[in-house]
């Protein structure tokens, strides 16, 4: 007999009777009370030392000197496109093995599949082994991933976003059961066999360790910021609106810009950025007296909540954002129906390039970061890789070697022919060259390219013909604000969160959303916080504090 | 893995499939004629058996086999233990009724059950009768061409996905939609239709009606076509007016089908849809939009508490079965045939 939860059996019986299952309760009551156990994982944390011991030795591989050298988590920038490209990989990576099935997330129209896609054909010929990619809608990727892991049916290469991986309970178990242990292939000097994998930043490899073993190849971030608040600078200028320097100015500006009669609203989704303006942490922050403070306990969070709730209440947020999950804010932004929305910085170049074809004056820029009265803004982010690429378990050492050589090819740095082919496709077909030699994607290029080979990379920012000012602006924004980046307390510690913590997230999000949309008053935040802490929040705090203490932080 | 929705759905068609007497009839006549040997019957019936085989195989593979997976309702199921999915079933820890305890102790679960039942009850009154009315209306149309056209138009939305239906409603009735823009131009304050939690139940029912009224009318149209036209002629000759004919001929003719569908709907009382609610959840909040299936999604699937999800699915199936049995019994008491009957 397993021990039962203390003091619950009578409640259960009452509830069962309420449900009209009196008979079942009477029969099963004894069993219910005596022979049950709580389900769910308690979470685990891998020590930073154990993580460090399995990492590849970092060896930079630079083909071309950057015009704007990166520093820390900021990538290198190139302002001109090189005239002479070099061959970075001399030996064909594939050994003509069976086709490698892959799955990756993709946010956009699905490109044609193998057999009717000349981009895939061109690269597969180069690789000497067929890659057969399956691109899945990024917004619903979690559904696919969970079903796949649950059924233990994974492709040869699986690329998953970090935020989805973080949500999977018992991911260490999944890694052990389903994915190849890459430690012996890549640990220490062994990585030298795959020079461009060895060139990936150590900061991103640190996150690719589960259960003390190296289990994935990272796709490093090209900027450590989680969000930016984009605005239509062209429309701002036209209306004579200056960039705000405080939340109050932002509000005044939004009031002026919103005009429902014309179908124009100031905002799409903005809450995460507002929290940063108010100086609120993403989740945890160290308290001066020791211990961790959750953001709900920070007065700055309440202020941000109040401010954003006001935006909703006064109708400054586009009704589509209010009415339906996953409103297409990019579309609204392009059409000028919203003037500001938050997105990852990764959205910038694609959107700018695409729309400037339609509207030459289109100019999207991140709004300069400002703080609320008396408070310093913060920026959320970390060096966490954007994606992890996993290799299916049990393919055999030779096949794993072949796959790693393919990944090595895909990671070839800027300035190489491999990079150009992977990033832009075939010249004359998928891109044409601007006068300065930089590639401009063609219609076919936009249609056929969908990140099918973006398994890993050394992040760089390269000037392209359709977004001439982007690289300078992007790196300027990073450099200007990198000092505001709030340090990731758990960098290099692999956390797997307790089930009770994962379970409480959605109900709490629901309550916060009720406050944002005005269905509950802001003063209810105290109550929400109390409920959150009681039903998993405190367990989460203890878990995180212990992880820090165990690592001497 | 058996999804939480399937268990309930399995029972209904399976029960319905066994119901009609034909399987029993040949047996009865066979007994009278000295039952033929198995070999002889096989030789005689093999084409029929061959035709049933694919359907039976599908049922076995996609309904009965996954039903075994329900054992995880009693496990702290971890899909990653052992070397293959079968071993994962064998090696996961048995925790008795732990998942059910967690489920029944969760106030969010009961919120979801309450919402689901409210919506079911509302739709039984305001949605269920509409396809019947539509069928009667269509049936009374004289012009075959007009009827065909109207039928196609009202069937069509059934094949749209919920994403499309919800987007359509947002574009029409949302704050930036057609109606709101027209009202603004007329100098009026637009109504809040898409984001009002209080009227959400009306909204989802309206969406369901728009999507499925034509589809739901098909069965009733077939039943109407089966009513003997002589009855109408005789009644008309006796001086019965339009309404009397409807009351004394049409509706009694439809009654068995109405009762059958009503019972099946009751068996599905705890399923009111999933996508429709997940799409509009943020707009009206959890309190209005959380139904059992979205609860299972957020608390079990999204957090990989597979055991908890299976427990909720079992709960749904058991409640559905009880409701079907009870409704069927009631139908018998009232002299109806119901879904099935004991010989």
Structure description:
- Chain B: This is Carbohydrate ABC transporter membrane protein 1, CUT1 family.
- Chain B: It comes from Micromonospora haikouensis.
- Chain B: Residues 1-18 have a biased composition (Low complexity).
- Chain B: It is a multi-pass membrane protein.
- The complex is a heterodimer of chains A (553) and B (343).
- Chain A is of the alpha/beta class.
- Chain A has three domains: 49-90 and 98-222 and 385-466, Periplasmic binding protein-like II (D-Maltodextrin-Binding Protein, domain 2, 3-Layer(aba) Sandwich), CATH 3.40.190.10; 226-380, D-Maltodextrin-Binding Protein, domain 2; 497-553, no CATH class.
- In chain A, 40% of the residues lie in helices and 13% in strands.
- Chain A has a five-stranded mixed sheet with strand order 4-3-5-15-8. In chain A, strands 10-13-9-14 form a four-stranded mixed sheet, sandwiched between helices. Chain A has a two-stranded antiparallel sheet with strand order 1-19.
- The radius of gyration of chain A is 25 Å and the shape is globular.
- Chain A starts with 8 loop residues before the first helix and ends with a helix.
- Chain B is built from 17 helices and two strands.
- The relative contact order of chain B is 0.14.
- Chain B has a domain at 115-334: Orthogonal Bundle (MetI-like fold), CATH 1.10.3720.10.
- Helix content of chain B is 71%, strand content 1%.
- With 343 residues, chain B is mainly α.
- Chain B has a two-stranded antiparallel sheet with strand order 1-2.
- In chain B, α5 (98-104) packs across α17 (306-333).
- At the A-B interface, α1, α2, α5, α7 and α15 of A face β1, α5, α6, α9 and α10 of B.
